[in-house]
């Protein structure tokens, strides 16, 4: 949908099915770790690049402010779920999951 409004030469490089297949072949522990990392860096991205930027429109900043707040609830849920998953693993399984 975005390609319609993008400049000449724009290509969407990532194939969603390929990304989904790569993620789904990993352990639940590794997927939860990735998701938590995304939730955390999304918040940090807002705090470092959007919040302090006085040149951005207040409306644009509000959208990302409330998105950042939503991400905090996701991170809280991830931080509850990830330790539960962690307790299921043996040390060997955990080492493999870290590598993933
Ligand atoms: Fe999220």
The figure for the number of domains is: 1
Could you spell the SSE succession in H and E letters?
HHHH
Beta-strand fraction estimate: under 5%
Helix content: over 70%
Instruction: Give the radius of gyration.
Output: 18 Å
Query: What bound compounds does this protein have?
Result: fe (ii) ion
Shape: flat
The overall average pLDDT, rounded, is 94
State the end-to-end CA separation. Answer: 32 Å
Continuous helix count? 4
Q: Which features does this protein show?
A:
100 residues; mainly alpha; 0% strand; binds fe (ii) ion
Brief summary of the model shown:
The chain is mostly helical. The chain is built from four helices and no strands. The chain has helices at 16-24, 28-50, 58-86, 91-99.
Structural notes for this entry:
- This protein is mostly helical.
- The protein has one domain (27-99).
- 70% of the residues lie in helices and 0% in strands.
- It is built from four helices and no strands.
- Helix 2 (28-50) packs antiparallel against helix 3.
- The longest helix is centred in the C-terminal third of the chain and has 29 residues, at 58-86.
- The protein starts with 15 loop residues before the first helix and ends with a helix.
- The model has no long low-confidence stretch (mean pLDDT 94).
- Fe (ii) ion binds next to helix 3.
């Amino acid at each position: 949908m975005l390609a319609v409004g993008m400049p000449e030469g724009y290509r969407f490089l990532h194939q969603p099915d390929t990304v989904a297949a790569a993620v789904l072949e990993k352990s639940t522990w590794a997927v939860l770790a990735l998701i938590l990392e995304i939730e955390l860096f999304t918040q940090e991205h807002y705090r470092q690049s959007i919040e302090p930027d006085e040149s951005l429109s207040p409306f644009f900043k509000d959208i990302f402010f409330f998105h950042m707040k939503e991400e905090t609830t996701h991170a809280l849920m991830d931080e509850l779920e990830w330790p539960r998953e962690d307790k299921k693993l043996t040390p060997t399984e955990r080492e493999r999951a870290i590598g993933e």
